[in-house]
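User: I'm putting together notes for a lab meeting next week and I want to include a structural view of one of the chains we've been expressing. I don't have a solved structure, so I'd like a prediction I can at least talk through. The sequence is below, exactly as it appears in our construct file.
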Amino acid sequence: MKNEKNLKICKVIFSFSFLVFLFLISANFVFAQWGQPSGSWGQPSGNSNSISNFINSSDFVALATNIANWIFTIALPIAVIMIIWSGILFLTAGGQDDKVTTARKALTWSIVGLVVILLAKSFPGIISNLIGADTGNLTSNDIVNIFDRAANYLFTFTIILAVIVFIWNGILFMTSGGQDQKITTARKALTWALVGVVIAIASKGIIMIVISLLRR
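Assistant: Thanks for the context. Below is the predicted structure for the 216-residue chain, given as structure tokens.
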């Protein structure tokens, strides 16, 4: 019950942050057009009140593509981090069924989100090719580098945590005293800790793929 409540809170926070992000993008674009009754998008009329359009779009399709690229740049790292986080949940589940279920759900929906994001990335290009429009390029190297460092730190933390959990599992086996219940608990904890390590190692490969995609 508590885990479900925490997940709901995280969803609300993420949704609110996403809406704020979209609002800031929209507001910046609107202000970029302020005082520009005519002319192409992204071309200020010379009014001193106009603000530079950081999206750098010259037409509607380019605008939509660049907004999609920004969303992709932010959402994809979040999806990968959530996969790593699900590995941590497996590591710390301790063989408890409710925590294992929560970790499994987190992993499932993180993978679903990652697949959706990767598929959605190709949509603007498909639309652009269909209507014969050019799309703008959006540089986000700074965001990519920050994500790369953060993901590597998180991966290192996960591996260190895995070592600690394995040591703890060894202690559980040694102190079980041959009691079936304690042995079963220790075995479950070790099993799901191994699952968490596998996910963490796999996520390292995912991180490399994501970084490669974001730097194209």
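A couple of points you could mention at the meeting. Residues 1-54 form one domain. The helical segments are 2-32, 60-91, 97-121, 123-131, 141-174, 180-214.

User: Perfect, that's what I needed.
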